[in-house]
Amino acid sequence: MTTAKAIRFARTGGPEVLEYVDVEVGDPGPGEARVRNHAIGVNFIDTYFRSGLYPLDLPNGLGQEAAGVVEAVGEGVTHVRPGDRVAYAARPNGAYSQLRVMPADILVHLPDAISFETGAAMILQGLTVQYLLKQTYAVQPGETILFHAAAGGVGLIACQWARALGVNLIGTVGSNEKAALAKQRGAAHVINYRDEDVVQRVLEITNGEKVPVVYDSVGKDMFTRSLDCLRPRGLMVSFGNSSGPVPPFSLNELSARGSLYITRPTLQAYAATRAQREAMAADLFDVVASGKVSIDIHQRFPLADAAQAHIALEGRRTTGKTILLP
Ligand code: NDP
Fold first, then answer.
1. Does 321 fall in a domain?
2. What gap in Å lies between CA 66 and CA 96, rounded to an integer?
3. For the chain, what is the total number of helices (H) and then of strands (E)?
4. What confidence tens digit (pLDDT) does each residue in 263-303 have?
5. Would you say residue 241 lies in a domain?
6. What range defines the domain where residue 152 resides?
7. Tens digit of each residue's pLDDT (9 = 90 or more) over 162-188
8. Which ligand 1 atom is the nearest neighbour of the CA of 48?
9. Exposed, middle or buried by CB within 10 Å (0-12, 13-18, 19+), for 187?
10. Is the peptide bond before 247 cis (omega within 30 degrees of 0)?
11. What is the DSSP pairing of strand 168-173 with strand 144-147?
């Protein structure tokens, strides 16, 4: 047994429920690996588990994303070995830790050219953008799409990857500073939704045609406006709840706007098998290695200050990626 520091929580609530504690870490069992995390990614989903929006047995650890080094593997584990550099973006929660024992299957090799910080910053949000732009709806060169929260962690990767694919991304943001950042990272148009009418601006930008797909992670506050931006038979991709979950709605909302489609995708479902994770990660590593997508780490906190990271993220005070350093 080794003692290591980790974030645990025994009750749901605000950031104050996060505790920085000592945990005992043992040897990996069959199918498991012990990984020393060198950098840890903070994601909005972590706040959903902390607040109780997504249920979890308590007490529990938190965090689904990190990069580090394999220290030991259990019986039957062959695809990673002690000393390998790895990254991961999956449940179970527990990435907010210096050292952990976890299912080995979810580990992907991190190329030598990618630092631990960059690996931890990009794997969950990068795989998300991979499936959103290439699988949920396969964007085509020349298309104009709408992507909310464009200056966030997922958003800045999406701006750049869309540009690399020849797609005109209309990004929405909540401040002028965020607008400048999204534009700099490749958004063809940016709407600051505090000052501008999103639906009206989308109509203007698209000459009245609207868009074939909306990527909406804002949830409750944006849902109806997102539907209003879709052309007939367009696809609503509702992939997050940053402002709260989307309330129940009538299917007539879809028929009234011209036979819309809607999906509520999760990374878990798209990266369900090792083969899927490895193929998606290879695509992500390629686009980052090509220089077409760079990873913006704009906030770094010590692991002990995870609560401060949550306050900043939920307070809309972050841009790009937030990481924790163990
Ligand atoms: P972000 O860095 O994008 O932070 C969230 C942003 O949402 C804020 O910065 C803010 O930007 C915007 N926002 C709008 N309304 C609110 C509100 N009421 N409270 C807080 N923020 C608000 O976070 P992530 O990149 O980690 O995640 C983005 C979204 O994508 C999240 O909803 C997350 O759950 C979802 N996600 C879903 C995945 C999936 O597979 N389904 C996987 C990964 C992420 P602004 O100030 O510009 O409005």
1. yes
2. 8
3. 10, 16
4. 999 999 999 999 999 999 999 999 999 999 999 999 999 99
5. yes
6. 141-264
7. 999 999 999 999 999 999 999 999 999
8. 34
9. buried
10. no
11. parallel
Residue of minimum CA distance from atom 8 in ligand 1? 316
pLDDT digits (tens, 9 = 90+) for 195-232: 999 999 999 999 999 999 999 999 999 999 999 999 99
Contact indicator for 270, 131 with CB cutoff of 8 Å: yes
129 falls within a domain: no
ipTM above 0.95, yes or no: yes
CA dihedral 7, 131, 241, 227 (to 10 degrees): 170
Please give the distance, rounded to the nearest whole angstrom, from the Cα atom of residue 69 to the centre of ligand 1.
Answer: 29
Cα of 108 vs its chain's centroid, Å: 17
CATH number at residue 42: 3.90.180.10
Ligand 1 atom with the smallest distance to the CA of 240 is 32
User: How many whole angstroms separate alpha carbon 48 and alpha carbon 50?
Assistant: 5
Beta bridge mates, 238: 216
Bridge partners of 19?
Answer: 8
Does residue 64 lie in a domain region?
Answer: yes
Using an 8 Å Cβ cutoff, are 59 and 66 in contact?
no
Pocket, ligand 1, Cβ cutoff 6 A: 43-45, 125, 128, 149, 151-155, 173-174, 178, 217-218, 221, 239-243, 265-267, 313-314, 316, 318
